[in-house]
Amino acid sequence: MNTSVNIAGVTFQNPVMTASGTFGSGMEYSEFVDLNALGAVVTKGVSNVPWKGNETPRIAETYGGMLNAIGLQNPGLDVFLERDVPFLRKFNTNIIVNVCGKSTEDYVEVVERLTKKEADLLEINISCPNVKEGGIAFGQNPKMVEEITRTLKKHATLPLIMKLSPNVTDITETAKAAEAGGADAISLINTLTGMKIDINKRKFLLGNKTGGLSGPAIKPVALRMVYQASHSVSIPVIGMGGICNGEDALEFLMAGATGIAVGTANFMDPYATIKTIVGIESYMKKNQIEDINDLIGCVEGKDTASGCSN
Amino acid sequence: MNIVKQSAEVIRNVQISEGVYDMWLKNMMISQSAPGQFVSVYCKDGSRILPRPISICETDRQNKRFRLVYRVLGEGTKELSKVKAGETVDVMGPLGNGFTISDCEHAILIGGGIGIPPMVELAKTLKCKKTVVLGFRDTIFLQNDFEGLGEVVIATDDGSAGTKGTVIDAINQNNIVGDMIFACGPTPMLRGVKKLAEQMGIPAQLSLEERMACGIGACLACVCKSKEKDEHTNVNNKRICKEGPVFFAHEIEL
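C-alpha cells for the assembled complex are given below, as produced in the milestone run.
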C-alpha cells in the first residue's frame, strides 16, 4: 500500500501535515505524537524579526469552531534557526516553514535565509487576517499575489507554497495568480474572518475585535474552495480547514488535494494528526486501494461548481 | 512530569453551592500533580471544540484521584455538571507549573470565588503557619475544606458573612501579616493583591487565568505581559498555560 505523495518534487511519506499556527514547531506536541509519522510539520509563521502578537483575549470558541487573533507572535528567524530547526531535523519528516512578513522585503529576507539545510519547502502566509500588514494586503488581490509570488520565487532556493485566503470573491483567481507567479504549490484555506460579541459586557470577545474562524464549522467551505482551486490550476494543492480525522482528510483528497493539514483539531485532541493517518490507511485497506494517488481528485459527479473548467 | 490525555472515570459530581460543582475523578498521573497545576477538560458535544482549563482543587495520591471544583459559566461547564458518577470525562494534565513551595513562616493564602479551589491542595501542602482569606460574592463554599489547615478569614461583597468588601479589606481589617502571599482569583483581585504585597514588602505568587486553546504552550493564545523576556518568543509574553499559570507578582504586569 502506497501512502506517499509528491509535492513540488518533494516526497511526503503520507499526505498528512500540521496546519501552521496550531502546532508550534512541533516541540510541545512531540510529547503526544511521533513526529516521524507525519508527512510534514508545518511551522507556526516565522518573520525576520520577533513579533509580539495581539492583545488578549486572543481566542474565542464558536459553534463547532473557534476564532483566533494571535497576531503571528513568533521569536523571529534567528531563534527559529537556532532552536527549532535543529529540533525538527532530528525527525524523519519534511519541514515546511511558514513565512510571514509586513513588507515584501521582510518576506524576501526570510525566504533567502532558508535553504535545503534548514527546511524542505516554504509556505508563504499572504493571508493572515489578524495582522494589518501581515499578508492579507497581498493575499486578497490577484495581481499582488502574482507579484509577490514572482518576487519571492526569484529569491527562494526551496519550493514555494502560497497560502491563500478564503476571504475573496473568487478563489480560482488568486489560485491562478499564484500559479502564474511561479508558485510550486498552493495551500488553502487560511481562516475566515469572523467576530464574536459578549452581549452581557457589550464588548468584542477578542482583543483584536475580529479573528480567524477555524475548526469543523468551516470544513464545507474549505472543501468547496479546495475543489475549485485544484480544478483551476495544475500545481498541487494542500487542503485544510476543519479536518479532524481520516474521513475529513479523504474528502479533501478526493476533492483534488495532494496533501492535507490538520489544524484546529490538534486543540481538540493532541493525537488528531496520527488518528487522521490511521483513518486514511484503514479506509485504503478496507477499500483495497493500493495507491493513495488514485484517490486524489477522484470525486465523481457533474461539474457545476463555478470555476471548474477542466 | 508527563502529561497525559485520557478518559477519567468520574467518582462523584455534586453541586455544593449555587452553580458550583464538586467533582472527583480517577487518574493516576493527574493525582500526582502539584498545587496550582490545572487540567484541560474536553466536552463530548462536538459543537464545543476547545477544552476548558480547570485548576486542580485537591489530590488523593493514594487512591489515584483528583478533585475539580468548578463554576457553571457556559454550555461547556453545564455539560460537565451533568456528568454522573461512573461515566467518563476526557482530561489532559497535569498542566502548567504550580505554586513554588518555598520557605516561608507565615503564608497568606487568598482565594477569590472560583479561584478558591486550588488553595485547598496548597493549604494541605504548605507546612508553615497559614492564614486563608476567602472572598465571595454572596454564597460561601469550600470553607470547611480549610478546617485544621489554618486560620480562615471570610469576605463577602454583600456582607452576608465576614468582612463586607474585598479580600484586601478583610486582610486590612484583621491586621493579617505574613511573609508570602499565594493568590488565585479574578484579575481585579489579583491586581489588588499585587499592590498589597508591594505595600507589605513581601513576595506574592499569583495564579492567572486566560482563554486557552491548546493548553500546552503551542498556540500562544494565553499570554500575559512579563518583565523578563519569555523563553518562547523573547518578547515579554509569558505563556500562562506553560510558564504559568502561577507567576511571582513582580514577574508580570496585570
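Chain A is about 30% helix and 20% strand. The domain at 5-294 of chain A is CATH 3.20.20.70 (TIM Barrel). Further analysis is deferred to the final report.
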